[in-house]
Amino acid sequence: MSIDNGLDLLVAEHVKTTLQAIITTLGLWMRKHDVDVSDAQTAQNVINEFEEVTEEIIASGQYQRRQRPQFQALPKFNWTRVDSLSEEVFLSKMQDMRFGDGLKFMGQLTGAWILACPEIIIRDMGGIQISPNSTETELILIMRKALHYSLL
């Protein structure tokens, strides 16, 4: 299953909107498959599996950082967009998948998003000091940390 259509939508959103959509989707996916989210170890195992797939995609380097059109307004955090992103980008494509396959799809799309999210959107995330001379490696690390801390 191609992730490019979903990726096009994610890279156009504010980082925090996309992170919240990922968290929402992960929670809904676990509930749909009767994963006992009240068991901390079970929930942590699912998160670890998701992050492993995300890291594999990042390590592959198969996606490139996208450029945002110069005069296009930056997206703002949008709570109303979270549920629609969760449904449109993730859940609608995962509906017939087994639990592990859906988790893998989410991890792949999230890894691709970390690599492709436009630098100007990352810099506009807020809450993190980003050097004007950040390298690509530093931008990836910032996005990985933002994802990891969002999942805690």
Structure description:
The chain has one domain. The longest helix has 21 residues, at 40-60. The mean pLDDT is 93. It has helices spanning 4-10, 15-32, 40-60, 79-94, 99-116, 119-123, 136-151. Helix content is 66%, strand content 0%. The chain is globular. The two termini are 29 Å apart. By secondary structure, it is mainly α. It contains 7 helices and no strands. Helix 2 runs antiparallel to helix 5 (99-116) and helix 3 (40-60) packs across helix 5 (99-116).
The dominant shape is globular
Number of helical elements = 7
Structural class by helix and strand composition? mainly alpha
Regions with pLDDT < 50 over 5+ consecutive residues? none
Rg is 15 Å
What's the story with the biggest beta sheet? none
How many separate domains make up the residues? 1
Secondary-structure blueprint of this entry?
Layout (H helix, E strand, L loop, with lengths): L3 H7 L4 H18 L7 H21 L18 H16 L4 H18 L2 H5 L12 H16 L1
Helix pairs in contact: 1-4, 1-5, 2-4, 2-5, 3-5
Write out key terms for the chains shown:
mainly alpha, 0% strand, globular
